[in-house]
């Protein structure tokens, strides 16, 4: 390509992701308010955000049924959920993924952990897989120190989905 050729879109993933002719990746960033508006209040589930890799700016969201708030003898299984998007788009904060994880937590009676991971093409595979493994390491390392996990989660029953 000539050095002075105008930039053009080479790949367009329905506006979620555009790759320009010089290799630049353009991702529109949805405003935080738009993500928050898409998350309906659901009194049957509680959730909180945490960071599992501060250096990479990667976070996760932990869900638990509100009925588990009082604790109890029976601890809940853990479901670690990796959002869809073909390793290229998506976030645990997107309303459809948030709603799905909320339903999993209440419907299964489980603690659900949903995590972000580095996205391609900016971060080629195996970056996302390395991040997925880091989430499991975070769970191992925080099982006894995170209050929700220590009180409600049965770390002997961990299922992976996504």
TrEMBL record:
One of its GO terms (molecular function) is hydrolase activity. Residues 79-162 form the Alpha/beta hydrolase fold-3 domain. It comes from the Eukaryota. Pfam families: Abhydrolase_3 (PF07859). This is Alpha/beta hydrolase fold-3 domain-containing protein. It comes from Dichanthelium oligosanthes.
